[in-house]
Amino acid sequence: MSGQRVFVARLAGCLVFDPVGDRVGKVRDVVVVYRSDGAPRVVGLVVEIPGKRRVFVSITRVTSIGAGQVITTGLINVRRFEPRGGEVRVIAELLGRQLAFRDGSGTATIEDVAITQAPSGLWDVTQLFVRRPKTSSSPFAKGATQFVAWADMAETDASAGAPQSAERLIATYTDLKPADLATSLLELPKERRVEVAAELPDERLADALEEMREQDQVELLRSLDDERVADVLDQMQPDDAADLFAQLPSAEREHLLELMEPEEAEDVRRLLNYAPNSAGGLMTTEPVIMSADATVAEALALIRREELAPALGAAVFLTLPPYEPPTGRFLGTVHYQRMLRHPPHERLGGLVDQGLEPVMVDATIAEVSRTLASYNLVSVPVVDEAGRLVGVVTIDDILDHLLPDDWRRRDGEDSALKRIAAARTGSINITGRR
Fold it and tell me: Alpha-carbon distance 182 to 213, whole Å?
């Protein structure tokens, strides 16, 4: 394999296998260290294993890097990856960095990094794919690209202190689900995280924020200007936005609510009136609501929308007009699976689940949990004292409150599960990191 060259941006997302062909995880980054006498040396890979945990795999454990896959010795430490002093992640920290040409011909931004295997079997950074600044004022113009040797580039005081472009890094996050994007953002250095968050589209950043702890949400949003924060909050689910607002001082909360779209702000204000641990405090105000005269075909058309969360697409809720919470009198629930068993022209009013009662807006978490568990549901309707539908509590809302506050970052309970998995596959080692 000596002399083999691999581009890191293309390596991201590649599957990692053990020697017998069992899948271990996916490559998420490459870790290098700088050297005074040469180009940076690769010391390992950041690999995402089942459970969304990111672990360090020493490059000495990698036996092959081929077309779309990486083969390891099968011995992987499941301790969560944490960068050590002097280590640099290529995707998270190098892509987008601006460097200067040593010959004085200007600057360029790193768009990709090539690593090459030396005769010794070790991997070094050898080439960079860079883009020079554009020379045209046209908004469609782009700077020229070229391959350069690592030795031909240098970090100057000016380039080291300049803001790093986040465009290339964001491109590597395109295929990540919101939970994975949230994890990736939180693992970035703080300055880099702020830069990437500033460049992410509002909807994409909102999706990632919904997967973070409230403390992390607040810290990240406070790094953005208020107008941008309001735009992102407009894109969040009202119940998630309300949970975030509950962490803010009242003056800051009111200021942001004034900046939000009135309709979105109204939903959040309504949720803030309920106790945090009640059905009202847990619910989302954006379920699929229809009239009893609507047909199965119309309902299926609504729940197949891509932006609709799976839990909210599992049922539609029938009410009298108006059809926005708080609605007219609640009539009942029609489950997706039942709709599939009836012709498209069937009226929804005849398909109502007669055995399912809604929960009251002041119901406790325990009461809502029992309802979900007793009837094998993923969502349950919430009504007020007048019998109007005000929202829906979904199973993920309940789990977020029942699990420990730091469940997304826990290294304790879930490590036992991974040890069980390791014992079954024989592919994971619980030893020191390297």
Answer: 10
Encoded tokens for 186:
């939180």
Cα(232)–Cα(238) distance, integer angstroms: 12
The pLDDT value given to residue 412: 43
Burial per residue of 287-317, b for 16 or more beta-carbon CB atoms within 10 angstroms, e otherwise: bbbbbbebbbebbeeebeeeeeeebbbbbbb
Structure tokens at 212: 């973070």
Nearest to 220 by CA among 246, 249, 187: 187
Beta bridge partner(s), residue 318: 290, 332
Q: Is the dihedral of CA 100, 103, 105, 111 positive or negative?
A: negative
Q: Tell me the per-residue pLDDT of 399-412, one tens digit each, with 9 for 90 and over.
A: 877 776 655 554 44
3-state secondary structure (DSSP) of residue 43: strand
- Determine contact, residues 353/332, Cβ cutoff 8 Å: yes
With a threshold of 0.90, does the pTM exceed it?
no
CATH tag, 173-211+214-273: 1.25.60.10
pLDDT of residue 230: 93
CATH of domain 93-115+125-165: 2.30.30
Q: Of 121, 125, 5, nearest to 62 (Cα)?
A: 121
Structure tokens at 232: 């992102």
Q: How many CB atoms lie within 10 A of CB 205?
A: 27
Which conformational region is residue 221 in: left (phi greater than 0), alpha (psi within -120 to 50 degrees), or beta?
Answer: alpha
How many Å from the N-terminal Cα to the C-terminal Cα in the chain? 23
Question: Check: CATH 3.10.580.10 for 289-402?
Answer: yes
Name, of 2-11, 117-126, 425-434, the range with top average pLDDT.
117-126
Judge whether 386 and 372 are in contact, CB under 8 Å.
no
- Sorted by where each begins, the domain ranges of the chain are 93-115+125-165, 173-211+214-273, 289-402
